[in-house]
């Protein structure tokens, strides 16, 4: 006889972006993908109540530069969260693996060093078709940023 399994309900996300300030760092490389992700991300942030003037967008040449500029943004401006948007496609060499791993570690380090949540919005794909199928993730990146920004703010105020 099988035991009944009980699962906790998934906790609700806090998706009220009112009064949040968010930064977006966007790679220009593979712009057909990153630009589309950015557009969906901005649309969703607006839908979640984040004021357009409270969203600061900075562009970088490629995904490799995302952590450096994310750190610079957090050094010079206050943000509740950042979203780093990029797209790395597999090539004939291992270059994509090096870039993906370096970017992920760099973004995590910046986030941990500054205490500001950063969403890793870098699509790591095999080809243009896979990239196109993942553009809709821009909406999820925006939701995740608002969620962690609200959670982080709540935890700071509980001290």
UniProtKB/TrEMBL annotation:
5-amino-6-(D-ribitylamino)uracil binds at residues 29, 63-65, 87-89, 120. (2S)-2-hydroxy-3-oxobutyl phosphate binds at residues 92-93, 134. Its EC number is 2.5.1.78. The active site is at residue 95. Pathway: Cofactor biosynthesis; riboflavin biosynthesis; riboflavin from 2-hydroxy-3-oxobutyl phosphate and 5-amino-6-(D-ribitylamino)uracil: step 1/2. The keyword Transferase applies. Keywords: Riboflavin biosynthesis, Transferase. Pfam families: DMRL_synthase. InterPro entries: LS (IPR034964), LS/RS (IPR002180), LS/RS_sf (IPR036467). It catalyses: (2S)-2-hydroxy-3-oxobutyl phosphate + 5-amino-6-(D-ribitylamino)uracil = 6,7-dimethyl-8-(1-D-ribityl)lumazine + phosphate + 2 H2O + H(+). It is an enzyme of class 2 (transferase). PANTHER family: 6,7-DIMETHYL-8-RIBITYLLUMAZINE SYNTHASE, 6,7-DIMETHYL-8-RIBITYLLUMAZINE SYNTHASE DMRL SYNTHASE LUMAZINE SYNTHASE. HAMAP family: Lumazine_synth. Belongs to the DMRL synthase family. Catalyzes the formation of 6,7-dimethyl-8-ribityllumazine by condensation of 5-amino-6-(D-ribitylamino)uracil with 3,4-dihydroxy-2-butanone 4-phosphate. This is the penultimate step in the biosynthesis of riboflavin. This is 6,7-dimethyl-8-ribityllumazine synthase. The gene is ribH.
